[in-house]
Structures
1.
Amino acid sequence: MLVIVALPSVVSAEIIVTPGQSSASPTIALPPGIAKKFCFTRNLSLGSVGEEVRQLQIKLNADLDTRIAAVGPGSPGNESTYFGPATRAALIKFQEKFKSEILTPNGLALGNGFFGAKAREKLNALMGCGPGTPTPVPAPMPTPAPTPEGISVTVSTDKQTYSSNEDIQIIVALKNTSSQPKQFQFGGCGATYSIPSDNFTYGQVCALYLMNVTLQPNETKSWTFTHKSSDKALAAGSHTIRGTVTNYGSADTVIMVQDLAIVPQLKVVSPNGNEVWAKGSQHPLSWSVALPKGYENKFATLKLDLSFEPYHQPCTNQPCPMYASIKPFTIAQNVSAISNFLWNTAQNTENRFVPAGQYVLKVCPAGMSEGCDTSDAGFVIVDNS
């Protein structure tokens, strides 16, 4: 059984119809203090960042039918500039609420969480934003410092999803991408990391010998930090980690923090065995979630990882056949547990197409190997010939 908790509303809004306007094209009355007229000008999808993402979240939260979350990250007043799984789930609700104007013209039956031309046109109309009046998009926070030519600055973490009590290992790297040796002079600390959305900055104390470093072509110098949850615990949701090499630029990466103290009980619903899907067709991947009593409020922040694993019929005769080892296909990561995931069988996953064959769907809590469930039997992907 899917456990969904009804959470209290935080901000109220109403749909109103202005004189001379048909009921099919209402406008949204937003709470005081929120800019009403914002014209959306670009496509948005999972992973997008910027002020337009935050404005989209504000508009979705203004309607109870499409609210991202009632409390916590993504809720009214807690919108961010990152387009994550919860924003995608809310956008799907918006697309399906106005299906005839957004989905039907594109030949779609179900929302896909892509904020394209039709969804943008509809939301702009609801906001009373006419064509040809784009709104300037202010920078939500300082952008990464530019990197000089012939130099690469990167930042990475030891994994993508963490629990709120885990430490985070952060690696900031400087690489000489030119064909000649380069000398780097830091004039102080070699590197720092920060979490811009949380107003948190930490500087590594640098030894004197790091003041000047010569790197050969393609050579890399790296600094490793440990962000301790005891120093600054991160709330559930997405966070931008920024790594900076003094005098030479910055780079960003995004992590997810999952505030979940227990392992949920997951059950794959579809595909669950014997389905046959042709290449190029779309199918919802679905599951049910059960949380122990007292933990239902964790449902809104629960994220899942989805993958396909090759399936072989159980062996009943000896000797059993040998099968080549094939790496599972990652379909999606950090997907909201609230709604299903629409997957296209021709979709390129991890730069690999899922070939024709027999598979099972595996659903796991994001970043975890326990508490997973797989299809009861194999389903088949066939070439569309």
2.
Amino acid sequence: MSEYRKKPVVIEAFQMTAERRMDNSEWPVWLGEAWNGERDAEGTLQRVDINAALPDTLEIVTLKGKHLVTCGDYIIRGVKGELYPCKPDIFAATYEPAALPAADLERAWKMGRDAGAVTAFNAISDFPLRTMLTNTDNATVLELRIRAIAHPPIWPNV
């Protein structure tokens, strides 16, 4: 029998909580689009029971059927745009924050400095959600959303 390792792929993920269920202001655009899709259409995020009390259980309609999303679950957008739920323990065992390229941070710093908005660099992080560049008054200058990477490459011991 041959063995295989899954290729590292970058995905987008959003953790659904009771608070986020009731206030969709933090939802990524792709999740809002899935929510506004036609009921029971593939790729739609919808309420299981439209008459249930809020916050309620959600489901994602996929080619393989409907999959429940409960509070705490991550909703993942795969490499082909497909949506599927993932339990928090599986997510933690499978994914880690994707590294933000240093060039992006440097570019953001230069843009802020040149605009006079950033006079000092502070990175505030609440991984895996976002990293923010702030000025010396801790006013947010730039917020960078962090995506997660599946099965990162294995680095040799050095």
3.
Amino acid sequence: MSITAAQDKLLKAPIDKGRLATRKGSRGATLTYLEAWDVIATANRIFGLGEWSRSFAGNGLVKLNEREFEKDGKTGYEVAFSCEYQVTVGDQFAADVGYGNGISYQSAIAAYELAVKEAVSDALKRCLRSWGEQFGNSLYDKGKTNAAAHHGDEDDEPKTTVINPKPAAKKPAAAKQEPAPAETKSHNAVLMELLRQAKKSPAWALTQCKKHGDEQKIDIKKVGDAPDDIKLLVIVDLQKIIDKEKKNAA
């Protein structure tokens, strides 16, 4: 399927300024961008439901950095990911790379979730801008709009999503620590096996991972609304963090 004349007309129409979102950059500039939900809705409206698709390309999702730090007496977690992505519309496709950085003072899992979702959303928007104005391509032209797109060109300021700590609550009296169940000893081995199985059947692996997570009292939902294969990758990669948090809680 090729782009029709009607679709081409819609793609070239001026962008509705009401769709634009803004945020403040650390240098004081106001950055203008389109949100991920908006570009997905626009693609569905112009191309049609089921008439376009998105998927990982190249190396897919890659962790670039991970660190634990202390600031003002609080423990923070920072994670960064890159995401190679591809969008296909009929017989046309566009590939690009997105980046995401997440910081959380609540948990390492929250930092991972922020970084992964940010990287995928950024890659998606970078791909869709190949289809023109309705996907914010002109926002990357600073000479024309005096605005920078969200994760725009290489000299644009990247966004870092931060979750601040919750207000401190009074700690209850420490309960007697029960011995860890025997299944915990094989936790890492099980998850690594799930990662191998995920390459063959992501749906099956996610079901098993959810089951195993319930046994170990791991909240799989914290990984967010990312695709199944991202959830699996994040869950497996978080194993060492989960083990560490269990030790700290002991």
4.
Amino acid sequence: MSASIVGGAIGMIGIAALGVLLLARGPVRPGLWALVTVPPGNALVAPLSGTAAWAQPAIGRVYLQGDAAAAQALYYDAAQPATLVVTGLVAVLLLTGSTVLFGIAVARSRWLPAPAGIGLAAAGPLLFLVGFALDNFIQTIGSALLIASTVWIAIVASREAKPA
């Protein structure tokens, strides 16, 4: 199974937990909108991850066997049809928007670190929009910022949740 699909599934647990905490203790509106937009965005990314995990390696094997024309035809038919591109664009917009909304909710909360919320809000566009468009090191920077921000939020939230 693709690591992207597994990572997305695991990430949904953290997203749900953050959403519940924000709805209970933080600014409700951005947290609620973020919680509503993440699942469809994550679901729409799954076909792209599956294509990358299973279809593209098979197409590469056809190419390596010497049939470049068949590989190219398969690529555009199976791995890059217009419907998959549109699905990817909608997913990118939903995931970018939800990450920005979660970041705003965290930054506005009085009990989570505002810089972590700002980092989370910045990570979404870097990772999903700029990184998607340029397909370069910007995705790595966005990913690192996303990881650092969410780990910081998780650490602070877990300390706040412990009884005194």
